[in-house]
Amino acid sequence: xxxxxxxxxxxxxxxxxxxxxxGETAVVLAGFASHRGYASWWAVAALAAGANLLSDQAYYAxxxxxxxxxxARLPALQRAADRLVPRLHAHRRxxxxxxxxxxxxxxxxxxxxxxxxxPWPEFVVFNALGAVVWAATFTTLGWLFGQTVALxxxxxxxxxxxxALAILAAGGVWLLVYALRHRHRR
Length: 186
Known about the structure:
Elements: H1 3-21, H2 24-35, H3 41-73, H4 75-98, H5 108-115, H6 120-153, H7 160-185
Helix pairs in contact: 1-2, 1-3, 2-3, 2-6, 3-4, 3-5, 3-6, 4-5, 4-6
């Protein structure tokens, strides 16, 4: 089993899981994989948009259902609500569309929009549009990163598997050193 076959088998699962949680890194890396031929650009973008839309719908529903309870227990969510609610009435649709692009509001944003009782049909439409633009943007950034790497490192393309193994080995060494340092601190 080669690294390429492992990547081909698991790239879509990584996009799904990564998009449900935070997402940008997983989607950019999957876009890079699509440039290298390990995944379809369209499938990566569609899966990222769908997973992102699904997670935002869940956070929105949670905000509508348990918003007051969440605000009372999560000070960071209260701070996000304090930032968003004053702007919400004047820019509700823009915020619904663009909330995923705002640093620190990827999860708190849909929760606050649910707490603020943004109408669900409006949330679905503008959130879906935002999810598609977000997924296409980050998948394309990964693809363009792959194009740039190919231009710069073209002569080294034959060493791709060795480079991947070296990166994995370096990561393993880093984890080992990290674990040993923290073990001695306890």
